[in-house]
């Protein structure tokens, strides 16, 4: 629907009480301006946790085991390409077990990923977030906290991105950040395309500094980079991290639950939403 900015939000009638999104992200809506109009913004927080963490887990396996290169070779139906790729992949692939997974952003999705990658793949979990997790969460997931993103990037064998897109995270992983990563390391992005600088990623892959990448989200989405699309060491999907039927159903149910919690029978404010995104800004307007 495009960007819900100041100009578009101003067109909404004063009777609007809530903007209930049947999705997780909110980078396309100015939630603070909605709050200034006394409009709650809610999302489907939690609905896609399982699906997105599963997608990230698949992508981690893919970048370590070169599954995309193998699939492309198999789909040629050419016996010579099949045989050559069979031999090559055994010499360039590794098992994830024992390697360090660097998680950027430690919310519900990435904590599920940490559990899955730790228990199923035997990876060592390290993370960075602007807010440190409780000690019991770190103990349960056997997760090591880093006080800076730079520290995490320097030690990770694979980095997985899980941050929202905002003014602070736009191009968060740029040329400098990628340069801090280990030679031959890997990166996975199931967050938002513009968190990872596309040209810097291409340069890091072409130079061999990164051995592989996996992207469910794209910088100019829905346009996928033709350069990245031509790389056999890059796994690409069509923003389907949360794309499961049960996820969609829960998204829509949560949107309706938020509406029913906020809007009364006569259109008045009846209460607070279940998953508010702009609570701080909304409450600031209330106190003015």
Strand order of the largest sheet: 5-4-3-6-7-8-9
CATH superfamily of the largest domain: NAD(P)-binding Rossmann-like Domain
Low-confidence regions: none
CATH architecture of the largest domain: 3-Layer(aba) Sandwich
Helix content: 40-55%
What is the count of distinct domains?
Answer: 2
* Annotated CATH topology of the largest domain: Rossmann fold
Alpha-beta content class = alpha/beta
* Beta-strand percent range: 5-15%
| Quaternary form | single chain
How many E-type strands?
Answer: 9
Q: Total helix count?
A: 13
Main β-sheet description: 7 strands, parallel
Rounded mean pLDDT is 95
- Rounded radius of gyration (Å): 21 Å
The CATH class of the largest domain is identified as Alpha Beta
The string of secondary-structure elements, in order, is HEHEHHHEHEHEHEHEHEHEHH
Distance between the termini: 32 Å
